[in-house]
Write a structure and sequence with these properties.
498 residues; alpha/beta; TIM Barrel; 9-stranded mixed β-sheet; 29% helix; globular; disordered C terminus; binds N-(aminocarbonyl)-beta-alanine; binds zinc ion
Length: 498
């Protein structure tokens, strides 16, 4: 199949020009002015933006969590993503305690197999990491194309791992070119506050937010960054929600520490006041981290503009209001944590970012696609429009307005966090590896069109941080006391050597 896209305004993270794009099979083969090649299909993109397909680096499809399972599976979730202009997502496989990563990966492959509308990859959620798991992590990275691993400082008794485990994971991932993605929130302290609130009869949804102070997130972010720096490894903070946490990332980056972070539309457009809605409505917004006070939103936009935040993902983890959020009607801590969002990420960020003049068009593409491709080992196959790249392309109408509603969305969930919000800018035609899968809002693909993508390793650690302080310590019995504020050399006994 040969496809020619004519006269579109091509926007990448760095380019902005009008051109034609010729696609042969799955790949972009020619970009130029007035191309006159024979094609099976010609798309007129005059007046439209032609952008790389969106990459959502954080979704939870068909995930058992909070006593139930997220409402979108790999069929409905990827279909909804496609409608919104997202052509790749990276979901999470979960290694349960006592399980091997290989087994976990097989389980998630089986969940996705034959169902997806778009391409996908997996991060591995690690809940167990001892010496015996080291070869498994290496296999994930070098053979299975799973090059990133999520660890949790939150959800004690469920997903939380201790600092020693985190540090071990970071050291191995760092050495092997992998990346630890951190859910950075002090879950142990949060659980204490939750217990206190429940003992005082505070059971309404708003207590989800009131028991999760921003300091708990900031502490987690800071700890994750310091541990990664000691290990000489990069770290990626997931779903960063507030200024307290952002400040820690910014400080680290200013020092040259390879710390990266994503935020999500919910933290840019929704705020604490949503928990104070009538009755049990606030349960719709029970997600972790919680929605914060509104003033944080401007700080997050600044972080996006200044590259202290690199990526916008959704943390799409939907639970139906009627049957699933209901589990916590009498106890906010039993409300399944998570919200829907995979479908409207591109439109929300275009509207809130570009239309509202907070970010440029190039930056829009960068934070919704290119940066995730680079950080997670998909670039330049994904994340850009270039000769040789996969033809994952969105013809985006920058003028058209739509009103978001659960009545019209494609996600398998009975509410929208953005119900009634009008957004300008929508994905009109979506191509996944050269195949038109959405045209004028209509799905033209088939479940199973999407393919698992093995991701590469990415060198994210600057040379002067390679090996980290920890490695220096282990390999050298003399350590400059400079870091202790003195110029004097001190000798310390190493407890191990590498
Ligand atoms: O509330 C959330 N974020 N649910 C999904 C699990 C997670 O922590 O990412
Ligand atoms: Zn998380
Ligand atoms: Zn998540």
């Amino acid at each position: 199949m040969k496809t020619l896209i004519k006269n579109g305004r091509v926007i990448t993270a760095v380019d902005d020009y009008v051109a034609d794009i010729f696609i042969d099979g799955e790949t972009i083969t020619t970009i130029g002015k007035n191309l006159e090649m024979q094609a099976d299909k010609t798309i007129d993109a005059k007046g439209k933006l032609v952008i790389p397909g969106g990459i959502d680096a954080h979704t939870h499809l068909d995930m058992p969590f909070g006593g139930t399972t997220s409402a979108d599976d790999f069929r409905t979730g990827t279909l909804a993503a496609a409608h919104g202009g997202t052509t790749t997502l990276i979901d999470f496989a979960i290694q349960s305690k006592g399980q091997s990563m290989i087994e976990a990966l097989d389980m998630w492959h089986a969940k996705a197999q034959g169902k997806t509308a778009i391409d996908y990859g997996f991060h591995m959620i690690v809940t167990d990491f001892t010496d015996k798991h080291v070869p498994e992590m290496k296999r994930m990275i070098h053979q299975e194309g799973v090059t990133s691993f999520k660890m949790f400082m939150a959800y004690p008794g469920v997903l939380l791992v201790d600092d020693a485990t985190i540090f071990r994971g970071m050291t191995v991932a760092g050495d092997e070119g992998g990346l630890i993605c951190m859910h950075a929130e002090n879950g142990v302290v949060i659980d204490e506050i939750v217990k206190r609130a429940l003992a005082e009869g505070k059971t309404a949804p708003k207590y989800h937010a009131l028991t999760r102070p921003t300091q708990a997130e900031a502490e987690g972010v800071n700890r994750a960054i310091q541990l990664a720096d000691i290990a000489g490894a990069p770290v990626y903070i997931v779903h960063l929600s507030c200024y307290d946490a952002l400040r820690r990332v910014k400080e680290a980056r200013d020092q040259g520490i390879p710390a990266f972070a994503e935020t999500c539309p919910q933290y840019l457009f929704l705020d604490y006041s949503h928990y104070e809605k009538e009755g049990f409505e606030g349960a719709k917004y029970v997600m972790t981290p919680a929605l914060r006070e509104k003033w944080n939103q401007d700080e997050l936009w600044t972080g996006l503009r200044m590259n202290d935040l690199q990526v916008i993902s959704t943390d799409h983890c939907p639970f139906c209001f009627k049957d699933q959020k209901e589990l916590g009607r009498n106890d906010f801590s039993k409300i399944p944590n998570g919200g829907p969002g995979v479908e409207h990420r591109m439109s929300l960020i275009f509207n809130g970012g570009v239309v509202k003049k907070r970010i440029s068009l190039n930056r829009f593409v960068e934070i919704t696609s290119t940066a995730a491709a680079k950080i997670f080992g998909l670039f330049p196959k994904k994340g850009t429009i270039a000769v040789g790249s996969d033809a994952d392309i969105v013809i985006f109408d920058p003028e058209k307005k739509v009103t978001i509603s659960a009545k019209t969305h494609h996600m398998n969930v009975d509410y929208s966090c953005y119900e009634g919000m009008e957004v300008q800018g929508i994905a009109e035609t979506v191509l996944s590896r050269g195949k038109v899968i959405v045209e004028n809002g209509k799905y033209e693909g088939n479940p199973g069109d999407g393919r698992f993508i093995k991701r590469s390793t990415v060198d994210l650690v600057p040379i002067d941080r390679k090996g980290g302080h920890y490695q220096k310590y282990l390999s050298d019995s003399t350590m400059s006391a400079e870091s202790k504020g003195s110029k004097k050399e001190v000798t310390i006994e190493p407890y191990a050597r590498v």
